[in-house]
Amino acid sequence: xxxxxxxxxxxxxxxxxxxxxxxxxxxxxxxxxxxxxxxxxxxxxxxxxxxxxxxxxxxxxxxxxxxxxxxxxxxxxxxxxxxxxxxxxxxxxxxxxxxxxxxxxxxxxxxxxxxxxxxxxxxxxxxxxxxxxxxxxxxxxxxxxxxxxxxxxxxxxxxxxxxxxxxxxxxxxxxxxxxxxxxxxxxxxxxxxxxxxxxxxxxxxxxxxxxxxxxxxxxxxxxxxxxxxxxxxxxxxxxxxxxxxxxxxxxxxxxxxxxxxxxxxxxxxxxxxxxxxxxxxxxxxxxxxxxxxxxxxxxxxxxxxxxxxxxxxxxxxxxxxxxxxxxxxxxxxxxxxxxxxxx
Length: 343
Description:
By secondary structure, the chain is an alpha+beta fold. Among the domains are: about 1-150, CorA soluble domain-like (Beta Polymerase, domain 2); about 275-340, Magnesium transport protein CorA, transmembrane region (Methane Monooxygenase Hydroxylase, Chain G, domain 1, Up-down Bundle). About 55% of the residues lie in helices and about 15% in strands. The chain has 10 helices and 7 strands. It has a 7-stranded mixed β-sheet, sandwiched between helices. A hairpin with a 2-residue loop joins β4 and β5. Residues about 1-20 have low confidence and may be disordered.
């Protein structure tokens, strides 16, 4: 769950956040893109003094840590309440000069199940706080990317917001690719002899997962649109083209989800139709064999009646004649059913 970049930290002699601090993964101040590790209090003081951008990374922090963050950055109590509950729908709220974003993350678990997590971003003048809950990839690559681009870090905290959103959005693609691969496998098996109920169960599971992905991805479009406007101080004009690119990625994902849902619906209908057709074939075969077997059964039943005077009872060739007649009639029925594609 580490959020600490693998890049070497600058100013390593500066005080750092104690490793035992619950929920704290990384705490650093970025001066002109250069990273300086320090405590939360020091980062808060430096950010207020305009010395750089403070980026604090937290993972499932407890209430005590959130109260500490609120006191240091003078955050609204409703904002902290939303972060603490950690079950927010994707949204973007503004609390004065502070922007709060709640986004959902998605990860493959064992290649078969999708685990959803949640990330909260709190951004204000000179600081950004990233808080992860549940299934979520480490933001170490995001920190490394930001540290490799000091000129973009000078844009401000808005670039960090973009970098995190871009990282989360990119992680949606492997999930959808996995769903598409399984869907293609199902489509290839539609005409196979796999039991219909097994395919229908897999299709239903994929539809549920796609529904979850739709609830995750769709709000990203609105979030990108709102961030692209100049309503929030956390968004600098230089970052707007990046946000437009992020919006395009989210739109691509949204279109892919719609396409996959249509393909799943088509696969579901095809599977039901084929199952019904196979069931009709089975019924036809059973009815055909029942009709064929009914002929000797009826004749044998007639001759099984306990009467003295019946046709051909005293004839020497009576028995083989009846057997031959039954065999011929059964063969004729088999030929007719075979020609009608019932057998």
